[in-house]
Amino acid sequence: MSLETVAANRSFGGWHKRFRHHSTTLGCDMVFAIYLPPQAEHGPVPVLYWLSGLTCTDENFMQKAGAQRMAAELGIAIVAPDTSPRGEGVPDDPEGSYDFGHGAGFYVNATHAPFDKHYRMYDYVVSELPTLVEASFPVSDARAISGHSMGGHGALVIALKNPGRYRSVSAFAPIANPTDCPWGRKAFTGYLGEDETAWREWDTCALIAEAPERLPLLVDQGEADPFLEDQLRPQRLAQACERANHPLTLRMQPGYDHSYYFIASFIDEHLRHHAAALRR
Amino acid sequence: MSLETVAANRSFGGWHKRFRHHSTTLGCDMVFAIYLPPQAEHGPVPVLYWLSGLTCTDENFMQKAGAQRMAAELGIAIVAPDTSPRGEGVPDDPEGSYDFGHGAGFYVNATHAPFDKHYRMYDYVVSELPTLVEASFPVSDARAISGHSMGGHGALVIALKNPGRYRSVSAFAPIANPTDCPWGRKAFTGYLGEDETAWREWDTCALIAEAPERLPLLVDQGEADPFLEDQLRPQRLAQACERANHPLTLRMQPGYDHSYYFIASFIDEHLRHHAAALRR
């Protein structure tokens, strides 16, 4: 498990660093970023995993969310993986679209050829990456998870499927019901095949009903988000939570869109939410 | 003076907006960004002009500096122009370098053909853009100016050449002595010609000696900045200020580099510095 340093930048008294490593889960080299707050110099700190949306790499969140200031204040590390396996040997969408293939792994384990060999972002994010991070940096095994859009879907699904593994979960504008929106149906058809019954284990709304752990969900959603009605569908999440009596704080934010300007405006509140759970 | 909206994003209760307009000073269309804090809905707010560095557009600062949170708290608008004239009709460096031509206007008025027709970023930033901004948005004529690297040079030179026009000035890693560093000498040769006596009116260290107004300078400089010794030379600025008894707060920041991670780490302190002056 060797890590090659790609970049290191001092940030709010801590460090933003990028590393390349070979992922056995994904069968390719991967780059991820970590923000280590100043407190990490004196002992292990908890970790928030951030899952980004379509087309992103580790860089979007680290450069645009403005999260380091509050992470430094609260003493939380943040780890941002890439959004898919990449590289010449990794099959991409033959049509070159932005919403499937490279940059669009959807945080599932693909079962459908030719994607099943590499597209195992679920296993990477849940297992391989935390094992690597916890072995390589001064961090504890107290974990939180959050993300945006496709990454919001990823964060919610991963928390729901792994009771006890995360202390807290939140999302910005998640794809709440991917089995019934164009982005999700395209991705799941490609990664999982045509049998829709196999899709349900990757759908937040389906998982909520049978969740063995009732971890409260914090979700922010911009009301001016152009993807609100067709792709994100937060009302489906609200309905699923109400039916299952699952704790949800869904905040509709007037005027906000799908951009990192939206995320930056509310990231501090999410970090405080996670810090409160991580301190317990 | 018509403005075409390019983008509008809600941000920290205010608005980040981008506009395109035709600049008569530069003889081309230009895009700039403005952050309007929530207070602008209730009356005029003061404005900080931010000048970016080589290769940047208006987007780098707005996306990466994390300035909107504190600007919203303090009630300050921020205007970020582009770093040069652009477009097919605007001559670029024939060698296509990053440090001359498009993206590298150096905030001077060029006198040397073929650049003298378009490269008048000084007049644009000092006159045309503020006139447009103050006519178009709920802002007052209380102005501050700051910038990074090439833009730090621009902010210092513009403040020094315009006593009374800015309430405060600051810079991150400015090119402090452009007449005696590779970036500056290349740009000034191209924009101003071979006669180095004409360069002096665009050099902070030369202007400090005869400054009619002793506006205090706040400068942050990363000690791990790879351009520190060859290009930026903050010690020249310190010497010039000491000789002229010009007030300077030069803060060397251990471990910080030239990136926006550095800027983001200290932007709040610069905004507070400007807010204190703008409130007077």
Automatic annotation (TrEMBL), chains A, B:
Keywords: Hydrolase, Serine esterase. InterPro entries: AB_hydrolase_fold, Esterase-like, S-formylglutathione_hydrol. Its EC number is 3.1.2.12. GO terms for cellular component: cytosol. It comes from the Bacteria. Coiled coil: none annotated. GO terms for biological process: formaldehyde catabolic process. It catalyses: S-formylglutathione + H2O = formate + glutathione + H(+). The active site is at S149, D225, H258. GO terms for molecular function: carboxylic ester hydrolase activity; S-formylglutathione hydrolase activity. SUPFAM superfamilies: alpha/beta-Hydrolases (SSF53474). Gene3D superfamilies: alpha/beta hydrolase. Serine hydrolase involved in the detoxification of formaldehyde. Belongs to the esterase D family. This is S-formylglutathione hydrolase. It comes from Pseudazoarcus pumilus.
